[in-house]
Amino acid sequence: MKEYLKVGEYIPDEHGAFDVIKREFYGKGYIFKDEETFYNHYAEPCYVPELFDMEYTREDIVCLCHGNEFLAEICFDMLNGQIPEVWIRERFANGEWARCPTCDYWYSRHTPPEPCGECEGPLDYEAGRKMNYPSEETVAQVRAQYPTGARVELVRMDEPYTKLRPSDRGRVMFVDDIATVHISWDRGSTMGAAYGVDEIKIVEEDA
Predict the structure, then answer these.
(1) Which CATH class is domain 136-202?
(2) pLDDT at 23
(3) Sign of the C-alpha dihedral computed for residues 78, 27, 48 and 6 taken in this order
(4) In the chain, ranges of CATH 2.30.30.40 domains
(5) In the predicted model, is pLDDT for residue 17 greater than 80?
(6) Spatial separation of the C-alpha atoms in residues 63 and 44, rounded to whole Å
(7) Distance CA 164, CA 187 (A)
(8) pTM exceeding the 0.90 threshold for the entire prediction
(9) Rounded CA gap, 113 and 199, in Å?
(10) pLDDT computed for residue 163 by the predictor
(11) Using N-to-C axis directions, what is the helix angle for 84-93 and 69-78, rounded to 10°?
């Protein structure tokens, strides 16, 4: 019998009140993560990140991965505290994942080269072998520029599926090890600003 990883506990409330989330430390943060639920109960919560009480089902993660079940499984396997949307964007920012230029099919550049799974057109795998991770000095500079708690405004975001728009504002939560600025946006999103891809600016506190 397969042994599934389970970190923490998620207890749904039967009376419509608040669910109970019991986190445990795993990898880089305190989370809830349930492999058995991810692989066998697609519509039930299987992951809750460290910083927010947001519940993710397998269906949610597959949707975030543009319907690609294989990428969704990679994403779930690697999550250890991060917000899935941010983790996915980082894969594109550093060149690990890419989109088919013809049909927008998502794929991993770590897999053996093959034609697009949708349109059968050629895909670019070479670029992914030259990962563009920021240096430690760059990460330190970004952290100094965008300290925790700072108010920021979105100038530009290279993400066609986000609901965020230029001039949206939020507050910096932290900057991770590849210089992504994690932000709690006023409109409720927690999408991070990827280094070298998106553009944000520091603004004054709202009056």
Answers:
(1) mainly beta
(2) 93
(3) positive
(4) 136-202
(5) no
(6) 14
(7) 8
(8) no
(9) 32
(10) 79
(11) 110
Amino acid of residue 166: P
What does the mean pLDDT of the chain come to? 87
Name the pLDDT band for 133 (thresholds 50, 70, 90): confident
Q: Which two tokens mark 2? A: 């397969």
* Predicted confidence (pLDDT) at residue 89 exceeds the cutoff of 60: yes
Closest CA to 38 of 79, 92, 76, 2: 76
27, β-bridge pairs:
none
Element (H, E) at 136: helix 136-145
Q: Which amino acid is at 60?
A: D
Query: Hey, what are 85's tokens?
Result: 């949307």
Give the integer Cα–Cα distance in Å for 206 and 186.
11
Distances in Å between the Cα of 26 and the Cα atoms of 17, 72, 95, 109 are 27, 19, 26, 27
